[in-house]
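Re: duplicated header lines in exported structure tokens

Our pipeline writes sequence and tokens for each protein into one text file. With two proteins the header for the second block appears twice in some exports. Here is an export where it did not happen, for reference. First protein block:
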Amino acid sequence: MLRLSLLTVALTLALATPALADSIAYVQGGNVFLATPDGARKVQVTSTGIYSSVSQADDGTMVALAPGERLHKLSRDGKVLADFLTPISDGAPTAGPVNKFHGPFNPQISPDGTKVAYEYFNDSYESAPGCSETTVPPCVAYKLSKGTLVSNTDGFTPFDTYGLLSGWIWPTWLDNQTLLRSDPAGILNDDAVINQLGGPIDRWFYDNNQGLGVISMELSRDLTNVIGIAGFSDEKLRVYRATMSPFGAPDWDHTPFTNKVNVPTAQQCWELTGAKYLSTSMAPTGKAFAYGTADGVYTTAIPDNCAPGGPGTLVLPGAKSPDWGPADVPTATPAQPTQPTQPTRPGASKPKLKLAKRKGGFSATLTTGAAGKATLKVTPGGKKKSVTIGKSGKVTVTFKAKRGTRVTVKATFGGQTVSAKLRA
């Protein structure tokens, strides 16, 4: 940690007083919590122990990452308002050279609560000179790519709704239509870029005193203060002061030995060291921020005029994934949520069930149009099978039955039930 004079410490503590209505959403022990920025009042929102990260909108609505590559939209009292898959939710990893998405990760809800941005990674395998499926031995060239996608928070949203934002991850919202992203996919790139949804990339920020780039960057709502994690092992947390508007700022020329005089878009004010920094979250005022380490979540102030600050206070020991928002902590203990049994797509058509005779019994083909889990029950006999449906949105299950038996099959998927009858 930085060694500070008593005067600096006193200044930091004075500036660290948070707005009374603010809250920090975070995850601990797999559950979502809300706390005042000083950590004095905490409320447990969920009790299922399934969540790994969370973010909150200005009205307090939250989105959390759930198992099975699903996102949950949560109310302030823990109710699951929406439970949905994303276009990259393609199931468990498959062995071998198979093109595969990983994600979603780090979901970040927009200020108005209508959209969520999240990270993805993609493994792809391609032919290369002297390396293909026909060479001896057969081989493929591996490529890892990454980027950001955006979904609506009421359900499944296709790729092409907001477009594929490749190259940079760690999304944060500047407003309801504009994203700041950091941590580029390749070398000789800006550390952070700005995207209006549906628009081109606006290259914004580069720190030439970095060490493997700057990640987890956030810009205050008044576009003045900037924070980010740097260093070879994420061992530096830097605070900057913007020197110009981020919109339309001059591009940095990354050409080696360039003669161009590059103009920095932000000035480094101070940095924290002495820990591995995991994440950051700017306060709505832009005058303070939260950050995560292995110890938990700290909050600290950002002094005016680029004056040096300090490490602040460990306010939430053992917590992770902090997100500082303007909504207050609920006064009452939230009700325990009832989890939906199945992710659904808004406006999805009703599943279709078709039965067909086969030797020794019959088959049941369920078409859902979406991935997920379904249950099929046969009468008479009460035979029941649970199945996982892949991204094809279709599955066929076989059952044994005596010839001539009249059977009825009921299939349940996403809260909807369909049935079909057959004489085996």
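Second protein block, exported in the same file:
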Amino acid sequence: MEQTQAIPQPPAACLWLCSRSGGALARVHAPLDALVWLALLGVLSMSAGVAQAQSAAAQGAAPAFAAAAQVDLLAQAEPDYLSGQPPPQVLSVTRLAQSLADAPGAVTVLDRQTLRRSGARNITEALRLVPGYMVAGYSGANLMAAYHAPVDEYGVRSLILVDGRSLYSPSFVGGGFRALNALPIEEVERIEVLRGSNSAAFGAHALFGVINVVTRHTLDTLGQALVFNAGSAGVADAYARFGWGAPGLSQRLSVSRSADHGLRDLHDSQQRVQLLWRADLKPGPATEWMLQAGLSEWDAGDGFVANAGDPQRDVSLRKSHALLQWNHAPQPDAT
């Protein structure tokens, strides 16, 4: 008699799965041990989901952190830039005192602190900080600054003013940098450089701009001051100043000397001596007088070897100037 063997049935505990295969749903009857694998897969998938969530959160927080860091840097830089003071007043654009932010022109202002930290020996060297200006010269004794250098090689198309006094010099192709270099940088309060055609109000000589040098008021230089500077290539600079007076009348007397051996293999050593005097008189609240006088002497080498048209020689230049300026402002806000 034939016996039939019963086919074992799957355990009662089973799992029905729905899986997608080729777009169709198939019912799968899984045994109990598959639950372990499913649990492991579930844990792995949950871990992957948490990792993706953390990555997305980090990516979303990165721009916010960068923006916060940028705001923090700006908050630190802004007080350093303005030092808690209003924007400086400039005079070289419309010939009226106005804020630098309201000036209708491209203006660069180099204040006294910037000049001191630049290490420049004279004002022409400090113009390297002005955008568009190239400072150079055919020798170390003839340093000049040019705006749009290929067009204005000798810098004669920029008007140079010192407290409103023009330094135009017909002895050097109309330029004024030889006289500008004689002004001690220790007496400069600020340099206003107006670039571009907005300087047409100053005349045809200010085609490329205006370099306006404002010297320090005598009330800001009361007392004595001595400055020495020495270095290689024969650099030897000295400046001495004595100021005295009161708010109604104050004066300043200064003497300066600068010398160096110039550039290597060139006959361009130089020595410059200058004596300056200034007085500020204020007889009333709306009236002010300024008097200036000065003497300068400059001795330098010039020319080149084996050049018949420009042979080596010694050049001497002596200049003097006097200035009387009257300012009257009927109202406190008038200029």
